[in-house]
């Protein structure tokens, strides 16, 4: 059960490019009015409200406004939930995903049972899963860039068509050289995303581990590896050109061969709302076809 059973404020984060989002916004706000809850909208939603909109909700103006919320509704696909998680960061605001897209593996709630689940949240009838986050630090010439990912970091060849040469270390221990299209470094949450499509293993979300999956390695011997979340990984490039660096498939940066790239467990988790009748393996079967024949 959620320790915060006295729900008063919640936020709405959504994919405003989807018509289905706008069809659901008004009913959710009507629901909040009946439950005497105070809704907050993102500035992106507020800026695109139709002229005939009758509500005057509060606005999430800064990241610190997430601290005012008892939970956050993310309406969209997995990308919407990932962007919401990045915005919430270390603030511990629980996120419930309502899936509007085709797959929506991260979203536990469908549109059909949305109000049933929202009522459960309002009554405190839910649990919170703590999802591991990974942190990447790119260091070059005394300057640092820091990124956080709920799903994965991907190091790849970017716009180039060449195979790239990477070296992977765990602390002071050399793991392997990789001549490949790149590497996927994923959390258990991200193990069912890009890493899975590249042949990586499925890790249940409660595990604390980091998976490294090579992309099209130029050898038959290199396979994905699962490492302890206590390891600090370092990736080195042996190539002179720019190497692409992607965060949850949404933020892109580049680094050169003189950049030190460190990846480790982040000091915080993302809180995802779940329910007692939810089943991770059932979700794998329904959405991924896991365990099916033919």
Anisotropy-based shape: globular
- Give the rounded overall mean pLDDT: 92
Radius of gyration: 20 Å
β-strand number? 18
CATH class label of the largest domain: Mainly Beta
Largest sheet: 6 strands, parallel
Would you identify the CATH H-level superfamily of the largest domain?
Probable inorganic polyphosphate/atp-NAD kinase, domain 2
Q: Give the fraction of residues assigned to helices.
A: 10-25%
- Number of DSSP helices? 6
If you consult CATH, what is the topology of the largest domain? Tumour Suppressor Smad4
Low-confidence stretches: none
Give the CA-CA distance, first to last residue: 39 Å
Summarize this entry quickly:
The protein is α/β, with parallel strands linked by helices and 294 residues long. 18% of the residues lie in helices and 39% in strands.
Lay out the secondary structure:
Elements (H helix, E strand, L loop, with lengths): L8 E6 L4 H16 L3 E5 H5 L10 E3 L10 E6 L1 H11 L6 E5 L9 E2 L3 H9 L4 E14 L2 E7 L2 E5 L7 E7 L2 E8 L1 E5 L7 H4 L11 E7 L9 E4 L4 E5 L5 E5 L3 E5 L4 E15 L5 H9 L6
Parallel strand pairs: 1-2, 1-4, 2-3, 4-5, 5-6
Antiparallel strand pairs: 7-8, 7-18, 9-12, 9-16, 10-11, 10-15, 12-13, 13-14, 15-18, 16-17
